[in-house]
């Protein structure tokens, strides 16, 4: 007589994209519960966090949600937010780039010196400086992808080297003020239409239309491919929720000075990055490399080129972000890009939902994470908290985001999706 204990074969994992959701309100709750159980939290934690942060500081100050303060937050997130978008691309590979703060500072320094001290056309100076940043990224990527030096070491060396370049370019004076009414100076101060309320409403409406249209297009493509697709009712609900948020934001911005240029540029870069990652073959290659290098190589992907190009994108966006930081502080100096700029950008990407383990994330996470970081910083400034306290709270939020990412990843593995 056999004494072997029968084993239970676990149910095979099912691709959630192939699940047919129930119709009606019950379907929404069922799908929400499935995502929570399988660790697919998405943007929920950061959205809830933003609401909690806003409620706490509004209760403490009584003016956190004032139009002028919200306008300032949307302007101040541009520099770190652009750097964070580049961080998202790097994290999708499961790698890191420690040089982005120094690249931002060097780019701002090169731009200012070329335009102010050398008398070069400011637009040309900007183009040359960002091109230099992209070349720096290509250099990092080459040593990492071709030579095999770990990305941590390459970018750590870059952090030191490009900070030295920044100091060398600026010279003994160490500071170059932005030309009055110049391109860089206007990056942080310009409002579309000189404060005309039409632009904020137009921006919100166009964004709503593009979002809803994109959702409908996705649904039709999935239906044509024989895959379950979102019903029109769900698309209408999602678009409606986004629409309400955007219209309220437009109203608040118009209570102050209208639509700020930094917000438009940041949202545009985020949307473009999202399009590249989700709609192009190149974007799918990035996810594939982040998901497994050997599998990506065997499928015919040029892994080395993907890695090099990602570091070029991250460095280029860091350089662009450096120009916004220079605009906000009125000059390029030796301290630009130092301090907590790099950590804030990395924290923004991770807090927004991009995984540190590679293969999962969106550029929109950079925008949401930057809003969280800047909201905390602004709120603590308003209650006159010490900078040490700001660092401690930001660090705690970052740790919580990483813990949440780790738990989510482990939960997905237990459901056969890790």
Can you walk through the features of this model?
The structure is a single chain. The protein has 418 residues and is mainly alpha-helical. It has 2 domains: 44-190 and 260-410, ABC transporter involved in vitamin B12 uptake, BtuC (Orthogonal Bundle); 191-259. The chain has helices spanning 24-37, 44-61, 67-76, 78-92, 100-117, 122-147, 151-170, 183-189, 197-224, 232-254, 261-279, 281-291, 293-298, 303-329, 341-351, 364-382, 387-414, and strands spanning 175-177, 331-333. Strands 1-2 form a two-stranded antiparallel sheet. The chain is globular, with a radius of gyration of 23 Å. Residues 5-20 have low confidence and may be disordered. Part of the binding-protein-dependent transport system for D-xylose. Probably responsible for the translocation of the substrate across the membrane.
Based on helices, strands and strand pairing, what is the structural class? mainly alpha
Assigned CATH class of the largest domain: Mainly Alpha
Please give the alpha-carbon distance between the first and last residues: 40 Å
CATH topology of the largest domain: ABC transporter involved in vitamin B12 uptake, BtuC
Major beta sheet, specifics?
A: 2 strands, antiparallel
The CATH architecture classification of the largest domain is: Orthogonal Bundle
Whole-number total of structural domains: 2
Uncertain runs: 5-20
Morphology call: globular
Rg from C-alpha positions? 23 Å
Give me the number of helical elements.
Answer: 17
Mean pLDDT: 84
Membrane topology: Multi-pass membrane protein
Protein name: Xylose transport system permease protein XylH
Keywords: Cell inner membrane, Cell membrane, Membrane, Sugar transport, Transmembrane, Transmembrane helix, Transport
Main location: membrane
